[in-house]
Write a structure and sequence with these properties.
By secondary structure, the chain is α/β, with parallel strands linked by helices. It contains five helices and five strands; from the N terminus they run βααββββααα. Pfam families: PTS_EIIA_2.
């Protein structure tokens, strides 16, 4: 059965101001934490995983990142999205020595590692059309939230 994954309205950001990826991820992780979606250690585990396995991806219009971590830090499946006011630097998922200016972060909190591929596929489907990311970036917060609710499904 397909169900909508938890997208909390306070975990969808537009025009987010962050000086670097750590600050952006901290703000996003705090939203998950305040909703009880993740437990202590989630934020640090995201940073640790990002060092070992970067999640920056070059998309048509802008760089994106899809950070996620070990399911043991997750209480409830959730996804957060931040459209950054100014891009922050992430390492490239494909070539870790390459830097990508990331404009959109899709933060995942998933209770089973098998769900990651499903959500990653959906995110890639969302952004594979040229101009689609541009449309998302231009949306006001409530419209972006509704768009994500309609386009991202759990297993």
């Amino acid at each position: 059965m397909t169900q909508v994954i938890n997208i909390s309205e306070n975990a969808v950001f537009t025009e987010l101001k962050a000086s670097d990826k750590e600050e952006a991820l901290k703000i996003m992780a705090r939203a998950f934490s305040e909703n009880g979606f993740v437990n202590e250690g989630y934020y640090q585990s995201i940073l640790d995983r990002e060092k070992k396995a970067p999640t920056g991806i070059e998309a048509y219009d802008y760089g994106i990142a899809i950070p996620h971590t070990d399911p043991r830090f997750v209480n409830q499946d959730s996804i957060g999205v931040a459209v950054l006011k100014e891009p922050v630097i992430f390492n490239n998922m494909v070539n870790v020595d390459e830097m990508i200016e990331v404009k959109v972060i899709f933060l995942l909190g998933l209770s089973k590692s098998t769900k990651h591929l499903n959500i990653l596929r959906q995110i890639m489907d969302l952004i594979k059309e040229e101009g689609e990311l541009k449309k998302m970036i231009a949306m006001p917060q409530d419209e972006l939230y509704n768009y994500l609710q309609n386009h991202l499904k759990s297993e």
